[in-house]
Amino acid sequence: MFIMSEDSQRTQGRDAQSSNIMAGKAVAESVRTTLGPRGMDKMLVDSGGEVVITNDGATILNEMDIEHPAAQMIVEVAESQEEEVGDGTTTAGVVAGNLLGEAEDLIEQDVHATTIVEGYHEAAQIALEAIDEQVQEAEVDDEILKQVAESSMTGKGTGGLTAESLAETVVEAVRHVDSEDGVARDNVAVHTQIGASSNATELVPGIVLDEEPAHDEMPSEVENASIAVLDVELEVQTGEIDAEYAIDSIDQLNAAIDAEEGELQGYAETIAESGADVVFTTDGVDDRVSSALASEGVLLFDDLTSSDAKDVVSATGARRVGALDDLEESDFGEADLIRTENFGDDDLAFIEGGAAAEAVTVFVRGGTEHVVDELERAIGDALDVVATALESGEVVPGAGATEIAIADKVRQEAAGIEGRKQLAVTAFADALDIVPRTLAANTGQDPIDALVDLRAAHESEGRAGLITDGEDVTIDDPFEYGVVDPADVKREAVESATEAATMIVRIDDVIAAE
In the chain, count of helices (H) and strands (E)? Predict the structure, then answer.
């Protein structure tokens, strides 16, 4: 009896577990060397020859052409980590891979997969308790937020800028969108522009659009602007069906032209008389309308995407209008300044300030595409973790100190767990050692010696991390050096890594259709 297609491939039992674990470990290993302030970069080249240079774990895993389903689960760990808290993707992936490695050893010792899963879940709960114990008691103020941002960006490609100088920009941006309702992270945008040193990176109190004026004679700058946002086509109206009109004389032709001109002139007059200084529309605009508006000193941008129009509304407080006859002064938004600027082949519109302004943009500059892309990723992660820290109000020590504390607590609690599950709980602690060991290896230290010293310092001082200061590597309290991470980043890494590892370990049958 044939139940499955003859072309199907089936792997069962220990072979299936071994194959899945090996795939997961391989993916985790691919990002391990990027961890920490001395982490290395990866060059990813796709089939079309496009190059990405980065040490961002989520980007690396997303760019890799991964087909193995178990390996894809590790990629999903990074994606989940990135989506939830914005950073810690490499840590989550590396921990998940090492949990699989420890599980493989236990399976070889005939420990059942279910026992390993139960042990891992129990250990994860202990780990979360350990993270709570490591939370800094001090209030999360701007200085701590800068430390969070700087810790996130240290070791990443930031061009000619230091992580310290960028951290100030990041914190200012997040503070701009902080309110009693929480941090509106979506209102912070990152806009990149090639053509200058990264030192030209600045914070724009508003939004930046890839748009140019509809007419060359329009003003390049408007202060205290009254802004209209339209979903209106400012062109000659045509019917939805094809039609032909017979013109028998020059008078009829002139009458048709006059009617057309009158229609277009009416659009321009309606807008000019409304009092709007600046107009954004999602539809096309006839050259005659834009010329007439230019003579009236009105700045017009046409063919905006719906997304850009939404951003303008959010930044200025305007209301989108679908019919020109409905345009009223109450629909207008406001901005302190709207200006256009040319950057080589690109024209950008800057919409800054205003009573209703909610958005802010980090305007990133860089000499090459690779520089601005990596800078954009670094700033994006920093914005995410600062927003996370500000909302939760909880930070923990970085530099591997939290992982050392977690592993220590898990080992202590393991002694009170009976049966083979104790082996799985202990293995969970051993798996977390991969973080300080990798940090040590990436800084040129001996991983074993560094781990022993970190454990000893933790036992005697209560908190110990591997601090990198220039060429020097010191074991000390990370809080004293401003090396901190949001507690939620660590919690998410533990939970997502545990979930992925246990899911993979439980699979003992793989059926693949050709």
Answer: 16, 20
Q: Which of 33, 34, 54, 56 is catalytic?
A: 56
The closest of 240, 288, 297 to 267, measured between CA atoms, is 288
CATH number of residue 107's parent domain: 1.10.560.10
* Cα radius of gyration (the chain): 29
Decide if pLDDT at 239 tops 70: no
Catalytic annotation, pick one of 381, 433, 476, 485: 381
Task: Confirm whether 56 is a catalytic residue.
Answer: yes
- 386 assigned to some structural domain: yes
Do 444 and 372 fall within a single domain? no
State the catalytic residue, choosing from 33, 54, 89, 361. 89
Residue pair 511/19 in contact (Cβ under 8 Å)? The answer is no
- Domain end, chosen from 367, 393, 419, is at 393
381 catalytic, yes or no?
yes
Does the active-site annotation cover 498?
Answer: no
Is 87 tagged catalytic? no
Specify the pTM. Answer: 0.76
Note whether 222 and 185 are within 8 A (CB).
no
pLDDT digits (tens, 9 = 90+) for 114-171: 898 899 999 999 999 999 998 888 788 889 898 888 888 876 665 556 677 788 888 8
In a shared domain, residues 411 and 318 = no
Q: What tens digit of pLDDT does each residue of 293-336 get?
A: 888 898 999 998 988 888 888 888 888 888 888 888 888 888 88
Percent of the chain whose pLDDT exceeds 90: 7
Domain that includes residue 256, residue range = 221-355
